[in-house]
């Protein structure tokens, strides 16, 4: 498999150098179909992860057919992506890290490919015209990797005692399937996973099928609403599964590592209550199913808002549950346009914690804000200072996109908006923002423009300059 990659690499690498001439010759000889493609870009210019995502096409659907054997640590997969070309394409790139690629087809015809780092470049037999829908299918296998983020945390394919837990923020999903791994390209998913009998495979969305044959069980999961690839998850192992319904009949599916079952049950039992509260605060729940996954992976110190089914590294407390469920609106339905827009995820999810407390007889958001401003929010002075390290809308590097300013100062921005417009209009802004960008993407400029549209005539420049973009602690709280 490896030697096959290398052999093709020599051919494919020469392509981008002569695309125009090559395409013209094809036209002159009458076999080119008239499309003069150029290669799509190998990134989407993300300010922090320039190689993440790819240009020239837009994925609408991922069909993933996987089989994994935890004992052998071996994954085999076929990924079939349906995409639309956004330019005439002679070649395009997918993100895939590690693994061996056996075969690539485009619209059922064998395509050449080569690999360099996380970029899998595919060169179809003929160019794809702008706006054409095409299907690329990649057959691959191997032992998926765990990656270490710039901030030192681990993601990707995390092995557990009885299987695996796949997590993808910000770039880990490319360790288990090829794709356009940037939040700006959201798509629907159908995932089928075959595992040894006795294990379960749990993912996002709805469970559509579970069949056992010849000692193996296949689980079929469907995510119908658009999903950013970093929010895809897959947990394989032994789980206590529970199914229930929340308000309006919304199905709730939770899968919990048996060792955490007793501790998790009371808090996960509150999912319907939290969703009911969140719908009052943020508007209709954006997805057709809900739930949670609790699983142990070594050194996993964080939870993740994986779409419809957030992952927790152990039994969560109510605050963490509120945080990850709030992300279903802010982050999962309204997704960041780039990794610079993380505060739109984390600032909102943190503010949701404050609102929950405020609505349940605890500290008010104003008190939380005041404690942060005065430095008393955290146990140590250093932690208090860290909130002012940089402006939430502009983290200094990829290593810091989940640092304290993104969470807490991000939440403070929202509180400043609330103080500027009043409680009633702020409530409408939280709901309206989730409705306006539902199942889409938004960046910081979209947010400030939205707020200014909803509440014109205020000193917004002052709020944004001081709280969103300004260095250091603003002078006036
Ligand atoms: N989004 C997670 C949360 O707050 C935290 C997180 C996990 C994270 N991995 C990350 C944030 C990578 C940024 C980058 O619920
Ligand atoms: Zn979060």
Could you characterize the architecture of this molecule?
29% of the residues lie in helices and 30% in strands. It is an alpha+beta fold. The chain has twelve helices and 23 strands. The strands form five sheets. The protein has an eight-stranded mixed beta sheet. A hairpin with a 5-residue loop joins β10 and β11. The chain is globular. The chain folds into two domains: 270 residues, tricorn interacting facor f3 domain (Immunoglobulin-like, Sandwich), CATH 2.60.40.1730; 135 residues, Neutral Protease, domain 2 (Orthogonal Bundle).
% residues in beta strands: 25-35%
Q: Which small compounds were modeled alongside the protein?
A: tryptophan, zinc ion
Q: Report the sheet with the most strands, covering strand number, pairing sense and barrel closure.
A: 8 strands, mixed
Distance between the termini: 61 Å
Proportion of residues in helical segments: 25-40%
Indicate the low-confidence ranges by residue numbers. 1-32
The tally of domains stands at 2
- Examine the secondary-structure arrangement and name the CATH architecture of the largest domain: Sandwich
CATH topology of the largest domain: Immunoglobulin-like
């Amino acid at each position: 498999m490896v030697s096959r990659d290398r052999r093709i690499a020599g051919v494919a690498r020469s392509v981008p150098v002569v695309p125009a001439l090559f395409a013209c010759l094809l036209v002159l000889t009458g076999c080119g179909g008239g499309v003069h493609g150029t290669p799509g870009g190998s990134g989407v210019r993300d300010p922090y992860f320039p190689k993440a995502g790819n240009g020239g096409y837009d994925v609408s659907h991922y069909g993933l057919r996987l089989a994994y054997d935890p004992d052998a640590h071996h994954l085999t997969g076929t990924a079939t992506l349906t995409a639309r070309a956004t330019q005439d394409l002679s070649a395009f790139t997918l993100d895939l890290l590690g693994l061996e690629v056996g075969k690539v087809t485009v619209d059922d015809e064998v395509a050449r490919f080569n690999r360099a780092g996380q970029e899998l470049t595919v060169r179809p037999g003929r160019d794809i015209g702008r706006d054409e829908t095409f299907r690329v299918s990649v057959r691959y296998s191997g032992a998926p990797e765990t990656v270490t983020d710039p901030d030192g945390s681990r993601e990707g394919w995390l092995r557990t005692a009885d299987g695996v837990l796949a997590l993808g923020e910000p770039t880990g999903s490319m360790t288990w399937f090829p794709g356009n791994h940037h939040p700006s390209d959201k798509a629907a998913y159908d995932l089928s996973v075959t595992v040894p009998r006795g294990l379960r495979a749990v993912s996002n969305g709805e469970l559509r099928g579970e069949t056992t044959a010849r000692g193996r069980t296949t689980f079929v999961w469907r995510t119908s609403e658009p999903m950013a690839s970093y929010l895809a998850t897959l947990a394989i192992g032994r789980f206590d599964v529970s199914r229930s319904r929340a308000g309006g009949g919304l199905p709730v599916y939770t899968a919990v590592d048996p060792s955490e079952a007793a501790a998790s049950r009371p808090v996960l039992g509150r999912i319907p209550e939290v969703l009911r509260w969140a719908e009052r605060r943020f508007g209709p729940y954006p997805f057709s199913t809900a739930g949670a996954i609790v699983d142990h992976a070594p050194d996993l110190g964080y939870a993740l808002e994986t779409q419809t089914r957030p992952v927790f590294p152990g039994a969560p407390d109510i605050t963490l549950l509120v945080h990850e469920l709030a992300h279903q609106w802010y982050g999962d339905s309204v997704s960041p346009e780039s990794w610079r827009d993380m505060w739109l995820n984390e600032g909102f999810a943190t503010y949701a914690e404050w609102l929950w407390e405020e609505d349940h007889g605890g500290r008010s958001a104003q008190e939380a804000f005041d404690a942060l401003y005065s430095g008393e929010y955290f146990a140590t002075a250093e932690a208090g200072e860290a909130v002012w390290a940089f402006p939430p809308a502009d983290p200094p590097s990829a290593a810091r996109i989940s640092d304290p300013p993104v969470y807490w100062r991000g939440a403070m921005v929202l509180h400043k908006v609330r103080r500027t417009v009043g409680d009633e209009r702020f409530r409408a802004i939280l709901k309206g923002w989730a409705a306006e960008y539902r199942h889409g993407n938004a960046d910081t400029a979209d947010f400030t423009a939205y707020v200014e549209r909803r509440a014109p005539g205020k000193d917004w420049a002052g709020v944004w300059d001081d709280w969103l973009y300004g260095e250091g602690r603003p002078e006036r709280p």
